[in-house]
Amino acid sequence: MRLLLSSAIALVLSAVSWLGGAISVPGSPPELDLSQFKDHQIITRDVCIIGGGAAGTYAAIRLRHMNQSVVVVEKENHLGGHVNTYNDPVTKVAVDYGVLYYENQPLVQEYFDHFHIALEKVPVLGQRSTPRRIDLRTGTPVSPATGDMSSALAAYSTQLLKYPYLETGFNLPNPVPPDLLLPFGEFVKKYSLEGVVDIIASFNQGVGDLLQQTTLYMLKYFNLNVIQGAMSGFFVPSSHNNSELYGAAQNELGQDALLSSTVLQTYRYEESELVYAVVQTPFGKRLIRARKLIVAIPPRLGVLHGIDLDESERELFEQFHNTCYYTALARIPGLPQGTQITNRANNTNYQLPPLPAIYVINTTREPKLFSILYGSKEHMTEAKVKASMTRSVIQLRNAGIPVEPPQFVGYSDHSPFLLTLPADAIRNGFYRRLNDLQGYRNTYYMSATFNTHDSAQVWSFIDRLLETDF
């Protein structure tokens, strides 16, 4: 139920909260008693941010530039979210196996420039590898993709140009264009885009069943900026270490980044000027009180632990479905250096492998290490993912590659990944209602769910929201 306070009560609550004292509001989560917290346990900031990934970290840095005080609550012992970097203890080479590239956009350059981190452009298609298309169910070779990719990309780009509002956020017109609600496989057939499916599959990893996924999400993921990067190159730090960005941000935030910390309970009173969060840190419980709350984690009910959702918030978030995505780094004895294995399937539409499956085995900057990208529709444990990866790698023996089982040195579960909705929910105005949550109960949402899984696109979305609401 929503908690309603009269204006008078709200003013009293606001004043008492800043001075300290007990808060007892009927219908709230377990009562918040400020007297349980000593002065050194109370953190007062303009904005409390839950989540220190790409969205939460960027929002924190930008807000500080806007002269607002922040605190970031991050469950891991470092910032970075989907960024995963392995530092080889022998060669000292840093190897990224999570986020790899950034688009050539001014805000990307400005963000890295702020930390004095140099960028360089790198090609992606054909980079450092000899690609082989193999059906990893059997180890048999798969023929090259058919169709004219160049003309198909041009036709696909023409479709993207119809929907400029997809570039940032989900500000969809009413009614929603029917083409956006088609299964992507039907959209491909309708506009004769068969030649672009293979390259989209190479970039839209982690989206589940590509052909059954709603076209809206595929157009947002494989957008014009990604096409430009695919053709002309993406940016990477000159150090080739994506964790450098988040290490620099962590240093700048200092004690304003609460690492290895989790939210136990939030308290958001609808007519109050303040929000509260009780947080478990390595140094004990802390009480954060702030004027605004930013939730920079996926809005899935299973993820929003401790956040005092009301019925309207819960009713929206429970409609989301999600895909599952995993990345690993491994030594694969017997796999030649510089080899890339693209998993494609014989006897399927567009040669796309049925999930769960490896998407690709990629060479890395460290010649003896390979990244393995893997997707599934339902969540899998680490043990099951690694066992499936191992079985698929062993199938390479049938392709004449004398491999041994992979020796894993890094692993990350990026689930829940892409959050999606059925076409009917989109048609019936879900995203209008979701956008209306921005500012509701002094809370704002800034994650890939509100734009797409692309760091530059997430940062662009955040910039617009900060400019209008902060």
Automatic annotation (TrEMBL):
Key words, A-Z: Signal
Keyword flag Signal: yes
Signal peptide as annotated in the record: 1-24
Molecular-function annotations in GO: oxidoreductase activity
Any Pfam family the entry gives: NAD_binding_8
Xref: Gene3D superfamilies: 1.10.405.20, 3.30.70.1990, FAD/NAD(P)-binding domain (3.50.50.60)
UniProt xrefs under InterPro entries: FAD/NAD-bd_sf, Zeta_carotene_desat/Oxidored
Database matches in SUPFAM superfamilies: Nucleotide-binding domain
Protein name: Amine oxidase, flavin-containing superfamily
Organism: Aspergillus bertholletiae
